């Protein structure tokens, strides 16, 4: 499996697991967010720039 389908499958698996857990736990709220929808936020910019500093890229 190539990189993109593997990534998509992992995100789907995490979402399915989260909703399954929420079905068992009445006090748990699950919110699914498309990861790239967060990339244009200040926190994403700060986090991404820090990871570049740490890895040296």
Summary tags:
mainly alpha
Portion of residues in beta strands equals under 5%
- Unreliable spans are none
Beta strands, count? 0
Backbone structural class: mainly alpha
Which sheet architecture does the biggest sheet show?
none
Rg calc = 15 Å
> How do the SSEs run, as a string of H and E?
HH
Total of helices? 2
| Proportion of helical residues | 55-70%
Task: Write down the overall mean pLDDT.
Answer: 75
Distance between the termini: 27 Å
What's the shape?
A: flat
Overview of this structure, please?
There is one protein chain. With 57 residues, the chain is mostly helical. The mean pLDDT is 75. It has helices spanning 3-24, 42-55. The protein contains 2 helices and no strands.
Topology:
Blueprint (H helix, E strand, L loop, with lengths): L2 H22 L17 H14 L2
Question: How do you describe this structure in short?
Answer:
This protein has 57 residues and is mainly α. It contains 2 helices and no strands.
């Amino acid at each position: 499996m190539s990189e993109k389908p593997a990534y998509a499958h992992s995100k789907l698996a995490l979402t399915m697991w989260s909703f399954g857990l929420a079905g068992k736990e009445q006090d748990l709220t699950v919110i699914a967010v498309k990861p790239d929808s967060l990339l244009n936020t200040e926190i994403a910019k700060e986090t991404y720039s820090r990871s570049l500093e740490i890895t040296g890229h």
